[in-house]
Structure formats: structure tokens, C-alpha cells
Write a structure and sequence with these properties.
Oligomer: single chain
CATH architecture: Roll
Radius of gyration: 14 Å
Strand order of the largest sheet: 2-1-6-5-4-3
CATH class: Alpha Beta
Number of helices: 5
Order of helices and strands: HHEHEHEEEEH
Number of strands: 6
Mean pLDDT: 96
Distance between the termini: 45 Å
CATH topology: Nuclear Transport Factor 2, Chain: A
Helix content: 25-40%
Number of domains: 1
């Protein structure tokens, strides 16, 4: 399986809510970074290890509902995969929604997925958290 195929499988699992598959697909020391302000969204910051990544996914689910999920493109070179797409979310408490364009950068080492980082308009996401 190519690195792009691995990431495509993760996105498919995310769309289906298959967290066990996602967590089994990352290295023990996996690092995930979300650029949002943790003081506002709770899901912002860097999460280390499978447990940390699981916490991120749990916070994401507790805070918001995915209303749209689209992966547009993949680019891969050596041990890096870059993907682009859109993520529609509705905040569970405020009921506010937004549609975010995102870019995610994934890194592999020795065929293991060791890190991921998301880039998007954090101000748009953080705005839906405001009461």
C-alpha cells in the first residue's frame, strides 16, 4: 500500500467514524498538530502518541458534528503526503457552522505514519465556538 493509499484509508475511516482503525494506523509515537487555539476550541495544539491522537478525535467529536467531508487531492513524495479538502462542521453547543478548506501534511518513517498537521482558517473555526 502506498503512503497516499494509507492516508486515503484514514480519511475513509474518519468519514465512517472508525476511530479504532485510525489509531491502529499510526505509530506509537505519532504526533498530531491542530492549529486552532486550545483555549477556544479545546482540540487545538499538539497531541502525542495514539492516546493523544485519540483524545484529539474525542474532543473533535464532543465539540462539533461533521456536516461535510471531502478530500480533493493528494500529492506524495518520498515519506510525505499532502492532501487538500473541505470540512463542514457545526458546533454542538452554539449551533453555528462553517465550511473549512484544509491542507494536511502527513509524514512517514520506516513505513510508519509518524506525524500529521492540519492547516486551515482558524479564525473561521474559532468563530463558531463563540456564544
Amino acid at each position: 500500500m502506498s503512503h497516499s493509499d494509507t492516508i486515503a484509508a484514514l480519511y475513509s475511516a474518519f468519514a465512517q467514524g472508525d476511530v479504532p482503525f485510525i489509531l491502529s494506523s499510526v505509530a506509537d509515537n505519532f504526533s498530531w498538530t491542530d492549529p486552532s487555539d486550545r483555549a477556544i476550541t479545546r482540540q487545538g495544539g499538539t497531541f502525542i502518541g495514539r492516546t493523544g491522537f485519540g483524545s484529539f478525535l474525542q474532543l473533535l467529536n464532543e465539540n462539533s458534528q461533521t456536516t461535510h467531508w471531502e478530500v480533493a487531492d493528494y500529492t506524495s513524495e518520498r515519506d510525505i503526503v499532502v492532501a487538500t479538502g473541505k470540512h463542514g462542521v457545526t458546533h454542538r453547543s452554539t449551533g453555528k457552522s462553517c465550511l473549512l478548506d484544509w491542507v494536511m501534511v502527513w509524514r512517514f518513517s520506516d513505513e510508519q505514519l509518524i506525524s500529521g498537521r492540519c492547516y486551515y482558517d482558524t479564525a473561521r473555526l474559532e468563530a463558531i465556538f463563540a456564544a
